[in-house]
Design a protein that fits this description.
20 helices, 376 residues, two-stranded parallel sheet, globular
């Protein structure tokens, strides 16, 4: 338990570096001073930290949606890079609006700190599958919390971390035999990030050989899809056919992964000791290890674990993602496939004699994050 507490303390110590009075933790949002003229007036007038870098990151779009959560101000269209696409991920903009009591300055501060709260809640919830009982559980638990996807979500105030928290809640509900609650949580997560609806596969835990179970699953699937369907219908009243805009992040299987491997090979040929390249190498190796373990658990005899069902659905997503998701250091795929990383670790934790080799391989990508977060 002391080791678990030390990890939490290390995380919180890193969080404090992003506090800038009187702006609070809005440095997490990564607003860019260059984009300041394009921000909606309510955000321009609210105190927030501006990054001197020429471009910000995606969190600044969702933060502005939090200030204008129903998109009634026409200025929001100029403030977002892809308004219909960004607006679909509205849940955590709504929660920030509620926590900020509708006041722009408070909303921005609430939005910037949401991921920190989500990290702490996930740390607590993951103890359900990785309790403080042995070294294996500790490494797996830490690997989840310091995975690139989770740390990037905190650092740039993105919806991936809170969405993963909701998916973990859905798994907990499914393991307790509560299909309606499971579906409701998945539906809520779909409003945070549409790919969270892939967690609908967890309903496979309730499949039986009688027709009533199929009716139950059909009803639960409707519950999963209903919140996002209603919200997209609202967006359609604003953006018409553009409400269904797809940024083209899904493509032919394996194209994105092979592109990433090609880029890594070229980078290693030019700069074999680049830290950025090494981070990408470790992330891809971790992805392959996570995928292999999820496949193993999915096809083992007996009942399939809830995490195996979710991990498999995100594995399929990973194989279909476009190169744009894989580019960067280590790449946005670590955020998009965060539930896969958590699923693999939870499944490993369930195996009391899981090999240390597989445990380390599954969490290779977390090593740079622990070092960078703690000491830089």
């Amino acid at each position: 338990m002391a080791a678990y507490a030390l990890v939490v303390a290390t995380f919180l110590a890193g969080v404090t570096r992003y506090y800038h009075p009187p702006f609070g933790f809005t440095a997490f949002i990564d607003f860019s001073s260059t984009n300041h003229p394009y921000e909606i007036p309510a955000v321009q007038g609210a105190p927030h930290f501006d990054n001197p870098a020429p471009s910000g990151y995606d969190g600044m779009y969702y933060a502005q949606l939090a200030v204008e959560p129903l998109l009634r101000d026409p200025a929001i269209d100029a403030a977002l890079d892809n308004p219909p696409y960004r607006a679909r991920r509205i849940l955590f903009s709504w929660t920030a609006y509620a926590l900020g009591l509708g006041r722009p300055a408070w909303i921005l501060k609430a939005y910037s700190f949401q991921n920190v709260i989500a990290w702490l809640l996930l740390a607590w919830l993951l103890c359900r599958w990785m309790p403080p009982s042995n070294a294996r559980a500790f490494v797996l638990w830490t690997g989840c919390l310091f995975s690139p996807g989770m740390i990037q979500s905190v650092r740039y105030a993105l919806p991936d971390g809170p969405s993963a928290l909701l998916i973990a809640c859905a798994v907990a509900a499914a393991e307790r035999g509560r299909p309606i609650a499971t579906a409701a949580i998945v539906g809520l997560a779909g409003l945070g990030r549409e790919t969270s609806l892939l967690a609908t596969t967890v309903l496979g835990k309730f499949i039986r050989r009688d027709w009533r179970s199929w009716l139950l699953i059909a009803g639960c699937a409707i519950i999963c899809a209903l919140p996002l369907t209603l919200w997209v219908d609202y967006l359609r009243s604003i953006y018409r056919s553009q409400a269904f805009t797809n940024p083209g992040q899904v493509t032919t299987p394996l194209v994105g992964l092979f592109w990433k491997l090609t880029m890594i090979r070229a980078e290693l040929a030019n700069a074999p000791f680049s830290l950025a390249t090494m981070a990408s190498v470790l992330a891809v190796m971790a992805f392959l290890a996570q995928s292999g373990w999820v496949i193993r658990e999915l096809f083992k005899p007996g009942d399939r674990a809830a995490w195996a069902l979710i991990g498999a659905s995100y594995l399929v997503l990973g194989l279909l993602t476009h190169a744009v998701v894989w580019e960067g250091t280590p790449g946005a795929f670590t955020r998009v496939l965060l539930p896969l990383a958590i699923a693999a670790n939870a499944l490993l934790a369930a195996r009391k004699r899981a090999s240390w080799g597989m445990i380390v391989a599954t969490n290779l990508a977390a090593v740079p994050n622990i070092v960078l977060w703690a000491w830089i």
